Each structure stands twice: as structure tokens, then as C-alpha cells.
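Intended use. Records like the one below are meant for learning the mapping from a protein sequence to its folded structure. Do not use them to infer anything beyond what is encoded.
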Amino acid sequence: MGRFFFNKQLNVNNAIEVNLNIEKLKELEIIKKSYIWGTNKDIFQSDKFSSIKPNWGGDMEWISSNNMNTYNMFLKGFESLGLDKLLKDIIECENQLRLYAGFFLKRSSSKKNFHVDWNGRLKNNAFTLLTPLYQEEDALHLLFKDIAGEECKYKYEIGKGILFGSDFSHSTESGKSSSSSILLCFQFGTDLPTYNRGIQDAMGTQTPFMILPDGRSIAHKGMIQDGMTYSVPLGINDLKF
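Structure written out for the chain above:
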């Protein structure tokens, strides 16, 4: 079982703010090949990514990998953050933290839609990380419900990210900004196969390509495929046949 915790500063369960090295973020391959730093101008190849728009209003886009190669670029970025050290006593794992999917979130307008990414049945064994890569002064921020049920605002800041697990009720604030913000998102957690179905159900149709806790890939249509994830960069000499 994962470990639940309370954040006194935010007055909420299972959420924490982390500092991220901006210079390291700038150099991540997944970012350098996707966006021009300091802008919201994308330069990625659309055939390497998928874009899904949620139906709760606004122009939100979830932009994620649609193949293993693009997934592995997200994976390299995820591994560079060293979150395994921060969460090793919280998330129950057999061998390692598993990245289920990486995303870019792009939006300039939204309506409120409070929801949880991960329910309590996952026992705080799955987390979401959100950190802004580009935003204007009038950017939309994150709303959440504290333990008293009060609506609070978390303000995104370049160089900082928010991590949250089970039963963290949140929403993008409603409104419209002058230009689209770009956020980097990682969804990750346990590598225990017993959570395969729960993780798949929680992520739903958010991405057409994800990795289950046990390491197998799954397509949007719901068919589990045999596959293996590799840390990247991956050279020919790293492959074992």
C-alpha cells in the first residue's frame, strides 16, 4: 500500500510542491524537439503525437505520445527529475517508478471541472506532476479543494511543479488568458501489476498510448500489447536480443 500524507501549507492531502531546475528542463530532448523555449510555439511532428480535447469547455489540449519512441523521450525527461528519491517511501513499487504517459497541456481558456486523477482505491500509488513551461501574466491557474472542502488556488510558477496523488480534487480555473500556456505533465506511479486495471480506468481515453504498471503498452482501443520500455537515449548496443 502507498502512504498517504498531509500537506500543512496547502491544507490538503497527497499533494506537494517541488522545485525543478529550469536549465535542466530547457535541455530535455522532449522539450527541445517540441517547443521553442520562452514561447508557446510548437515545433513537434504531429504524426509523433496525439491531441485530445476534453469536453468540459475551453480549448484545452492533451498532447501525448502515440508511439514508443516519443514515449521514451518523455521517459528520459521524467527520469532526469529524480522523483524516485522523493517518493520512494510513498509509492509502493517492486523495482521502479513507472511512467504511464507524458503530456503537454496547452490551453488559453477553460471552464471549471473539479475531478480527481487518481481515486482512493489506488492507495496513493499513482501521481500527476504539472509544471508550466510557458505562461503569460494572466495565465489560468489550478484550483483545488482543501480538507475542509474550500476552493483554493495554486499558482503555477516557472521552475516549480505540483505533485498530487489519490483523491486530490482539482480543476483548471475558469476564464480566458491572452495567450496559450504550455504545461509539462507526467503521470506515473507503481509498477505492481495488481494496479493495471485501476490505472487504465483512471486514465481512460486521455491518451491513445500508455504504459501499464507491469510495463506493457496499451492502445487507446483497449488492447494490451506486448512491449517493453527502455530508458533513453537508446543506442543499438543497448538492445539485447
